[in-house]
Every structure is written in C-alpha cells, then in structure tokens.
Amino acid sequence: LPALIGESMSVLCAAPQVAAPAREHIAQLFTHIGAIAWVEEEAQLHTVTAISGSGPAYVFALMEALQHAALAQGLHAALAQKLVTQTVRGAALLADQSPENAATLRAQVTSKGGTTEAALNCLVQGGLTTLVERAVAAAQQRSEELSATQ
Q1: Please, which residues have CB within 8 angstroms of residue 136's CB and are 6 or more apart in sequence?
Q2: Can you spell out the DSSP letters for 92-107?
Q3: Neighbour tally for 10: CB within 10 Å
Q4: What are the tens digits of pLDDT across the range 25-65?
C-alpha cells in the first residue's frame, strides 16, 4: 500500500552474475515507488517480507488500538484519528531524518516518572517486544511456507 504514495520499502536481491548496470537499472525502477535496499542472500527476503511487507499492517493495527484507546477515554472519532495519524507520521519522519536510533528517540520522549514512562512500562510488562518478535517470526515462517509451495 505505501507504494501507492511512493513511500514503499523495496528490498532487492540479485544473483552474483547479474552485472552492476542491470542492478542499477532495476534499482532505478523501484525508486519510483519508494526506498530500496539490497540483500545478498535470497533467504533474507522472508525476514524482509515479515518486516516491510507485513509491517504496514502492524502499524495500522497499532493505530487502530490507539484510536480505540482515545475513544475509550472520551475523545471523538475524528480527533482520535487525527491525533494518531499525525503522531505516527511525525514519529516516522523524525526517525527517518534523525541520526539517532529508535531506542534513543524513545528515550528522548520519555521523562523519568512521566506519562510516557508509565505507558511504556505497561507495554513492557505486557510483553510488547516478545509479542512483536513472535509476530515477525510467524510472518517469516509463513513466507517460507508459501515460498516452498511455489
């Protein structure tokens, strides 16, 4: 879906015998729909699928959950959607433009004893990292299964 607005993430892989000009030509084609990266091993594409192929759905699921939480706290639907959409947009743009990694940016937003720390503690206690790792592993495994049947 992000390709529809020129913001996809495409990861390419080519056999060693593919010449550099051919690689450059293929890369140039994919830049029209977003960013590109290369992997050396085709097997890595299963992980790529689990992250950037399925990733937009993970982000949309988080957005749905945040919108639901906003509604549960009494905000109206239009405001909840705008708050969540702009928050995700701003965070993504900052992460893209910043030299800092996500952990550092998260720490910069998290005041000791503040509201963000309280929320993040809840997410950590709920096993967010483990849950995401399991979800990515499930998507990767399914990608491998689908690949084996073709």
Answers
A1: 47, 50, 51
A2: HHHHHH-SS-HHHHHH
A3: 20
A4: 999 999 999 999 999 999 999 999 999 999 999 999 999 99
- The position carrying tokens 């690689």 is 23
DSSP β-bridge partners for residue 11:
37
Q: Specify whether the CB–CB gap between 11 and 20 falls below 8 A.
A: no
Whether the Cβ atoms of residue 143 and residue 50 lie closer than 8 Å to each other: yes
d(C-alpha 150, C-alpha 77), whole Å:
43
Q: Taking Cα atoms as reference points, which of 67, 32, 36 lies closest to residue 52?
A: 36
39: closest CA among 3, 9, 74, 14? 14
Helix, strand or coil, per DSSP, at residue 75:
coil
Helices (H), ranges, 31-114 = 45-48, 55-72, 77-97, 102-109
Count of helices and strands (H, E) across the chain:
7, 2
Does pTM top 0.85 for this prediction? yes
